[in-house]
Amino acid sequence: MDTGAAVVLAGILAFGGLLAVLAGVYGLRQARRVRETGVRVPALVKRRPEQPGEGPVLLLQFVTEDDRVMEVVCPVPPTRRQPLHDGDNILISYDPADPRDVAVQGRERLGLERAFAIGGATVVLLATSLLVVALAVR
User: Fold this and answer.
1) Alpha carbon distances (Å) from 134 to 10, 43, 130
2) Whole-prediction pTM value?
3) For residue range 44-62, what is the model confidence (pLDDT) as tens digits?
C-alpha cells in the first residue's frame, strides 16, 4: 500500500474512532448527570396501543416538580430479569431542565456507551499503529 493511501486511511479511521469515543463518553456523562442531579419520582408504566408495523411501546408517566404530567417513551426495554408490565410503578430520575430526559433507576444499561468508547479507542489505536507502520516503511 502506498504511504499516502495509508496515511489517508489512518486519518479516516482516527476520525471515526474519535467520533465513537466522543459519543460513548457523552452518553456516559449524560446518564451519570441525570442519575446524580436529576429529580427522583415514581413513574407509571403504560403500554401504548400498537400501531400497524410497529411493536409494543412502553411509556412512562410521571408528575414533575411543577405539577406537569409528562409521558415519555421508556428509555430501556423490559428484560426477562426485570420485566416492565403495564401498570407497574418504577423509580426514575428526570432532568428538571428537560423532563423528557429520564433515567430508570437500576436499569441504566450503560453497556452501549461503554462499547462505543472502548471500540472507538481501539480504532484510534489501530489508526495510530497503521500510521506508524506506514511512516516506518517509507
Assistant:
1) 9, 56, 6
2) 0.71
3) 999 887 777 676 788 999 9
